[in-house]
Each structure stands twice: as C-alpha cells, then as structure tokens.
C-alpha cells in the first residue's frame, strides 16, 4: 500500500529565494519520522563543523578534548564502536567525572540539544548532565544495558560562560564507551515550536474530522498540519492542514476536488506540526539556514539512510536548495557533519564533488524553481510505501518549475540484488534558477539524468531514468498527437527504467524497470490531474503516480 | 505449435529475375507447415505441379538413434534428381517437423539431410510421417503476369483471424517483386481490409536463398539470405498485451536492417490497422532517455545492456504513428526481442541461452542449445 502527502499547501512559507524548499524538508522529515523512520542526526547552521561538540565523533587520535577529574583512564577504542572507527573508552575511578571540551560557536540564550551514545556493560549506572555556561542542569542516568544507547539533554546556553557536558561515574566505577556526541540546535525533532504533538491515538472521526485523546485541538492549532499514518486504510495517511477546530477536534483540509472522504478509523500514529516554525532559510539567519537531518528507514530488509541539509547561504539573493545524500544500507556516518564514512556503499562512495553544503551547490540537491518573481504558491506531494522502501516527492509551484526527486529501492530482479536496485535520482550540482526538475532531459537539472546506483561490487555508479523512445529520437509521451488508447479509451503508461552506467564509463552497465514504486510514464496530459478513475495522478511532463482514487483540487 | 527451419539452401535457379516466382511457391509450403491454411491463391498449375513436387511419401520415419537419416519403406528416392533438393517433413513432433535440404540419397528408401538444418539434439523417433521432396518451386515457375496472389490464414490459436497476403508486382524485370500485406481482420473473402503493402525489392534478381523460419501460433518470421545480401525478413503476427477491444492487432513488417530502433522505416515500422480499420504504421520502441533518445539508443545503452555477463532483452512495445488517429502505446511485438546492437551477428546471445542474435540488436528464439549456427548463403 502506498501513502501520500496529497497537495499540502505550503504557500505561506514562501520567502524570497527559498521558495518553500526548507519548509518542504521540514514536512518531509516529520512525515517520515511519523512513518517509523529512526532519528539519526541533526545539525544547525554552523558552517564548517555543525557539531558544536569538539571531537564529538570520537575520530580524533588524541583524547585531549576529554578531561578526567580523577585517576581513571580514557583512550580511543576500536573494540566498541557506535559509529565510525573509534569511540572513547573510559575506565573510571570511583566517583570520577569525564567532561567534554567547551562547546564551540553557541549563541547565548539559544536552546540546544546534547545527544551522546553510551555503551555501558559495567553493571553500574553512570550519569550525564550539561553545564549551560552557568550551572549544571538535571542529570540523566546512563544505565548498564549491555549495548549502545542514546541519551539526550536539552539546555539553553547561558551568557555567563562556556558550556560542556559531563559524565559522572558511580562509586562502583567501571568501564563505559562514549561515541557520537552531537550538540546542535534542533529545527526538526526537538523543535518544540515546530512539533506540537506526537501521539499514537489519532482518530478519523468523520469525513475530514481528526481527533486525539492525547491532544485537545484549540483555536491556535488552525493552520497547523496534522501528519497521520494509517497502515490499514489507503488514502488516510497524509499531511493535512487544520482549517477549523470544534469541541477539541480538528477539521482537516483533505484537498480533494470531489466528495471523497477519509476512512473513519482509530489508533493512528500522528504528529501536529507548525509550519511557521519550520526552518525557512530566512534571509538573516545563518544560524538556521544550514540546518539538516538524517533518518534511517524502517525497511526491514535494508535500513537505508537519508540525509538532508539546507543550503546555508543566508544572503538575500542566494538560492535555498537542499543537499541530499543517502545510503542503501545503514552506513556509518560522521556525526560532525552527517557525511558517510567510506565503509559501505553510499552516494559519497564515488562522488568526491559532494561538498557538504559549502555553498557551491555540489552534489545531489533538491531545488525546485529557485527564486521566481511570479511564484506565490507551493504545494507538496509525496509518496512512499508501507515499509518506506522509497521516498519520492515533488514541490509544485504556481509557475512551471516543479521540483522532483526519487530515492530508495526499485525492487530486485534476476540481474539486480536488492541493494543494486536502489538509487538516488535528483537534480545534480546545478543551481540554475527557474528550471523544471521533473522534465526528463539531458540536463543536470533534471531529476532523471544524474542519479547514483550501487554496483555489484558495492561502488556507486552513475544511473539515469530511461523511458521508451522510437524512431531514434522521439519519445511517445511527448508526441504532438498523443492520445488515449482508442480501443478502451484508457491512458497508456509504462514504468520508467533505471539505467546504470548509461554512458559506458563504468564497469557495471545494467538496466531494470522500476518495480512497485507507483511511478509511471504516460502521455503528457494536463498537469496535476488524475485519470483512469483517479487511479493515477499526472504530475507533469508524463511523470505519473499511482493515486488513491481521490480527485484533486485544481 | 512451433516451427523452426534452419539454413535451408534452395536450389539455384538458372536465370535472374525469377526469384519471386518460385519463392512464393516455397512460402506457401512454409505457411502450411506452420499450420496456416490457405484462404486464396491465384489459379496456377505450378502450385501442384509434378515438376515442383518430386515425390510424396506417407510412411517416412526418423529415429533418434540415426540423426539426419530419413527412411521410407515405400521409397522412391533418386540420387540424381533428389540430392540438393528440399524435403518437407510434415511430422507431428516439432523436433522433426521442418524443411531440410537433402544431402545424400543412400538408396531408394533412405536419405540423409544436411546437418546444418537439424538441431544437434537430433530426431525424436517418429513413423508414418508425410514428406514431400520438392525443388522449392523451381521446376515450373508461377505465372505472375497479372499479379499472382496468395492469402494464408493464421492458425486460430487465440481466435485470431490474421491473414497474410502476398501479391506479385511485375514491372520491368528489375522492378519485379512481391508485395506483402496483412489482413488483421481476416476478411479476404469479404471486405479485404488491408494494411499498407510492403516490399523488399532488392532480392528480385536473386537465384537462390538460404531460408530460416520461426513460427509460433499466429506469428511467423521468415528470413533469408540471397547470394549477395544481408538477411531479409518477412514477419507477420499479432501484437500481444493489447487492451480489451483491440481485436485485430495484426501486422506485417519487412526489411533488411533488423533495426527495431530504426529511423521510422524498415523493420521497426509495422503495417497495421487502426481502430477505424484504416491502415496505419506502428513503431517498435527502444530504451531512450527522454528528449535525447539517441543517447541511449546508438551510442551507449544500445550496446551496453549487459548485466553481469548476461544480455538484457526487451520485448518491444509498439507505439502507433504520430498522426491524429495514432500516437498511443498499443502492445508488444511477439517472438522477437531487442538487445544491445553490437553483439556478434547470427550467433546465440549467450552460450546456454534461449535467444539468437540476428543483427542490430534484434534477437529471435533459439531452437534449444542444439540449434545449428546460422550460416549465410555459402557456396
């Protein structure tokens, strides 16, 4: 079963040169998280090293950033690792403390998150707290679980001094390992002004009425967005704006053009988010502009990983695209900047041009129209399946420059392992404005021209999206006389192809059809219209999606 | 029911410009062996002439222990007149059924056929087979002065009524040739709803041919080399995977290029009927990249659709001509497949594979791993 965001209007979040992409990232994040994805990483707009915790990834050879108060010892360890190649091993003395170096580049009075990963098999509980520049806050127990566990503390930077975190050993002491320490301002998971509610008791109570015993909807929720996940009733999952509130229940804008309604049900996992708190890439906020996130798919066959980071260029005339990188596996990553280590296959495996948002536009990006004087409207469409084997989404503006992206698995076949069926296909490296990413062309700005796909050897190869052509240079879906099949008056369509090593520069040429990803190529029709009894949605330029038999608002 | 004919070398006629007069005689023989039935033919004594049908026997036998050997208790084989001729073996078993070239007449009851015409898997033992020894229609030429016609109806394996229509067109001796048509509605006896005719003129002056056939149900692909040219083909069939209501997806296509990604003419162009029963062309599609189709066709993917040493093949979808009554995807071409166009010509696509690459990326079913290697006209 597929799940969609169907035409979420985010026009209110358009800002000069951002054109809704940061807000789209915000919604996509919460939709995926609500669909069962695991939080991995966040960063804020810190430029060169967005992790404010020195040696937070524990990959420095030295231990000088970690200070002990007593006679214990600390060293870098390769025997217990949460991420990367090393962790910090701490053989503690009784009641000893270990403190981090002072956090760098914090903004006074700003709220931050401190996440650490700890392996504690000592049999004793350690504790963890943060010095905010003036005092320690409340502590958290680091229990002896026999495995890696993450802990998080929220703190607000005090103007009085530097901030750092501390772990404290019990009287009984012992050995623990610490890794992946991340200090960041959260614009996504822990952004309490952005994430208003997060529960598992959502109810569709009537055609477009949503309620939750855990949250009484109030007038202030109008304009916010309910993100719902329903694993049973197709068409219920989505991101719906709250249009009104009555008796603690929300009326949702379900964006259908006809009489279709949501299916009445209970027990939905849901979130309430506030788009006005989304990272907008505001022109004056470098702190916010370069934020990003990393998530891991719940797909049981391959916990693939996906990272977004917004362009940090905060100037008044800089494009606000999103850089994307991903791995078909649970590839380890550098918690300092989210980049993958080259220990497993990822989009960074063969692509040294990734710059991790140094403002050059290098790498795969989610961009959309860029700045356009006439753009006053942006609507978000997204499609995934039950297991989150893939994610595809598009941002539809009122001008003809649609964003488009696909990332995930296309299904194994006799010539492709599951991993080889994975691809990331987005605009690449070109930040020219006012171009239509959804248009399949031989331009780097097309979503289908510069993808990456794993080879049998575990390297990444260039791939692109193939369609049918005829007579050497024509494509059926764009022909001038294109029409329905006259024998049954239905549209004709085919699944796109995934073509690896299309230009013969690699060693692993291959071709496969997309599988059950709900993406098709049809004749070019009126943009953003459904056909065949609303079974399909034509987006633009022949790209179609499977659609849950509901009409659309024109 | 499938029919495979391999490397059948016809006798060499004594003069040029008569090829189409005896070739059509042989086509009728092939169609019938493939299960097609005769709807109509121009009256001509050459069809059944004893000058063409040299011997008919009803008790031929083949044995798995003696590949290439055909025996008959009745007998009548004559070395002087039968060696080098063809024998149509109307066997029940597909492994035996074909037309072969007689290499040796051992005695009046025994002949040996050419090895290049028989799978190395050999015979399946069978008796009581009807066989015809013939000279491929060269003993008495068909009369073509007023335009000879032959109409054959496909076996109705799926209720199909496709008819194949061949008509000679005589002009100057250089221009003499045969046009081929399809009647997708099978209405020769009534409305005669024809596709556009197609012709292969280039072989008009040839005197002999090396014939290959693959036929299955209502689809038949005949291709042949002549003395100096590449393999021509005639291909009749019906698209598969068409929508409900598309009852007459019959087609015919001919050419020498075998290019399913050709430039809107040749083998990639299928002559068909549209939904209003008017003649229309359909074109085989090929993997492309959006607006820049040739990039993936000729330069790169066309020769590189290989994955881990295995050639990727595609059943080509057919897109109807970009005219006001066309421009829609209709169905899939039967029998043949597309692959990269730089594989070795006339050779199996993969050693143990089921497909045989002809040329330019068009592949056809292989008659098992024992299928004889294709040879050209030879000496």
Structure characterization notes:
The complex is a heterodimer of chains A (554) and B (379). Helices cover 3% and strands 38% of the residues of chain A. Chain A is mainly beta and 554 residues long. Chain A has three domains: 2-45 and 279-546, no CATH class; 66-184, Galactose-binding lectin (Jelly Rolls); 195-273, Beta Barrel (Elongation Factor Tu (Ef-tu), domain 3), CATH 2.40.30. In chain A, the strands form seven sheets. A six-stranded antiparallel β-sheet of chain A has the order 2-19-20-21-22-27, with helices on one face. In chain A, a hairpin with a 2-residue loop joins strand 35 (536-540) and strand 36. The longest helix of chain A is centred in the N-terminal third of the chain and has 14 residues, at 21-34. Chain A is globular. The mean pLDDT of chain A is 92. Chain B is built from four helices and 26 strands. In chain B, strand 3 (53-62) and strand 4 (69-72) form a beta hairpin. The longest helix of chain B is centred in the first third of the chain and has 15 residues, at 19-33. The relative contact order of chain B is 0.14. Classes of the chains: A mainly beta (554), B mainly beta (379). The interface between A and B is large, with 49 and 50 residues.
Please, what is the average pLDDT of chain A? 92
Widest β-sheet, arrangement of strands of chain A:
2-19-20-21-22-27
Residue stretches of chain A low in confidence (pLDDT < 50, at least 5 long) are none
Computed CA radius of gyration of chain A, to the nearest angstrom: 24 Å
Question: How would you describe the shape of chain A?
Answer: globular
């Amino acid at each position: 079963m597929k799940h969609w965001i169907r035409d979420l209007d985010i026009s209110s979040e358009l800002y000069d040169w951002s054109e809704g992409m940061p807000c789209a990232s915000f919604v996509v994040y919460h939709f995926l998280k609500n669909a069962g994805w695991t939080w991995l990483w966040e960063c804020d707009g810190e430029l060169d090293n967005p992790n404010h915790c020195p040696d937070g990834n524990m990959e420095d050879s030295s231990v000088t950033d970690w200070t002990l108060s007593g006679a214990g010892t600390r060293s870098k360890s390769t025997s217990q690792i949460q991420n990367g190649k090393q962790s910090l091993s701490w053989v503690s003395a009784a009641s000893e403390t270990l403190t981090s170096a002072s956090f760098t580049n914090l903004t006074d009075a700003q709220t931050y998150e401190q996440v650490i990963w700890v392996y504690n098999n000592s049999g004793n509980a350690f504790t963890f707290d943060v010095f905010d520049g003036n005092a320690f806050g409340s502590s958290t127990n680091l229990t002896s679980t026999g495995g890696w566990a993450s802990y998080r503390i929220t703190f607000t930077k005090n103007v009085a001094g530097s901030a750092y975190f501390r772990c404290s050993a019990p009287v009984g002491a012992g050995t623990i390992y610490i890794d992946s320490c991340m200090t960041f301002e959260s614009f996504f998971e822990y952004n309490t002004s952005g994430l208003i509610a997060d529960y598992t008791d959502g109810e569709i109570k009537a055609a477009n009425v949503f309620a939750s015993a855990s949250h009484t909807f109030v007038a202030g929720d109008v304009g916010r967005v309910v993100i719902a996940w329903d694993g049973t009733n197709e068409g219920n999952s989505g991101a719906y704006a709250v249009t009104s509130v009555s008796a603690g229940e929300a009326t949702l804008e379900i964006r259908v053009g006809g009489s279709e309604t949501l299916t009445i049900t209970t027990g939905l996992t849901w979130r309430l988010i506030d788009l006005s708190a989304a990272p907008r890439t505001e022109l004056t906020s470098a702190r916010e502009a370069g934020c990003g996130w990393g998530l891991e798919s719940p797909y049981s066959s391959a916990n693939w990983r996906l990272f977004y980071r917004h362009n940090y260029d905060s100037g008044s005339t800089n494009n606000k695209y999103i850089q994307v990188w991903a791995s078909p596996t649970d590839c380890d990553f550098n918690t300092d900047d989210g980049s993958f280590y080259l220990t497993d296959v990822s989009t960074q495996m063969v692509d040294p041009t990734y710059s991790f948002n140094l403002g050059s536009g290098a790498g795969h990006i989610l961009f959309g129209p860029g700045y356009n004087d006439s753009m006053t409207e942006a609507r978000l469409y997204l499609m995934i399946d039950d297991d989150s084997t893939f994610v595809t989404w598009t941002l539809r503006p009122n001008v003809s420059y649609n964003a488009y992206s696909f990332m995930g698995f296309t299904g194994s076949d006799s010539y492709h392992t599951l991993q080889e069926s994975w691809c990331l296909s987005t605009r690449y490296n070109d930040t020219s404005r006012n171009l239509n990413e959804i248009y399949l062309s031989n331009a780097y700005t097309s979503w289908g021209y510069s993808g990456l796909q794993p080879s049998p050897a575990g390297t990444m190869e260039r791939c692109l999206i193939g369609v049918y052509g005829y007579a050497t240079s024509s494509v059926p879906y764009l022909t001038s006389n294109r029409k329905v099949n006259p024998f049954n008056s239905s549209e004709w369509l085919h699944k796109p192809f995934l073509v690896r090593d299309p230009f013969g520069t690699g060693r692993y040429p291959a071709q496969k059809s997309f599988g059950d990803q709900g993406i098709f190529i049809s004749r070019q029709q009126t943009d953003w219209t459904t056909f065949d009894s609303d079974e399909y949605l034509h987006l633009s330029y022949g790209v179609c999606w499977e659609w849950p038999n509901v009409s659309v608002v024109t | 029911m499938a029919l495979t004919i391999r490397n059948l070398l016809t006798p060499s006629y004594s003069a040029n410009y008569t090829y189409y007069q005896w070739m059509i005689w042989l086509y009728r023989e092939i169609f019938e062996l493939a299960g097609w039935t005769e709807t109509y033919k121009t009256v001509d004594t050459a069809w059944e002439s004893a000058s063409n049908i040299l011997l008919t026997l009803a008790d031929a036998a083949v044995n798995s222990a003696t590949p290439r050997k055909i025996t008959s208790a009745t007998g009548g084989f004559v070395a002087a007149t039968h060696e080098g001729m063809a024998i149509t073996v109307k066997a029940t078993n597909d492994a035996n059924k074909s037309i072969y070239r007689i290499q040796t007449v051992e005695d009046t009851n025994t002949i040996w056929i050419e090895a290049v015409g028989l799978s190395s898997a050999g015979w399946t033992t069978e008796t009581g087979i009807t066989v015809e020894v013939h000279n491929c229609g060269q003993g008495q030429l068909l009369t073509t002065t007023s335009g000879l016609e032959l109409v054959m109806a496909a076996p109705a394996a799926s209720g199909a009524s496709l008819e194949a229509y061949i008509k000679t067109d005589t002009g100057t001796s250089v221009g003499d040739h045969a046009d081929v048509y399809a009647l997708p509605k099978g209405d020769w006896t009534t409305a005669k709803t024809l596709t556009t005719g197609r012709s292969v003129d280039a072989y008009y002056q040839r005197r002999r041919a090396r014939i290959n056939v693959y036929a299955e149900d209502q689809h038949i692909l005949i291709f042949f080399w002549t003395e100096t040219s590449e393999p021509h083909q005639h291909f009749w069939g019906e698209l598969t995977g068409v929508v409900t209501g598309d009852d007459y997806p019959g087609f015919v296509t001919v050419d020498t290029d075998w290019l399913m990604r050709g430039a809107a003419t040749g083998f990639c162009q299928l002559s068909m009927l549209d939904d209003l029963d008017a003649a229309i062309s359909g074109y085989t599609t090929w993997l492309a990249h959006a607006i820049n189709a040739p990039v993936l066709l000729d330069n790169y993917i066309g020769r590189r659709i290989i994955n881990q040493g295995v050639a990727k093949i595609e059943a080509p979808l057919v897109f109807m001509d970009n005219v006001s009554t066309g421009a829609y995807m209709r169905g899939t071409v039967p029998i043949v497949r597309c692959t990269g166009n730089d594989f070795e010509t006339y050779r199996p696509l993969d050693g143990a594979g089921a497909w045989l690459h002809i040329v330019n990326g068009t592949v056809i079913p292989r008659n098992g791993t024992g299928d004889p290697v294709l040879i050209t006209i030879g000496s």
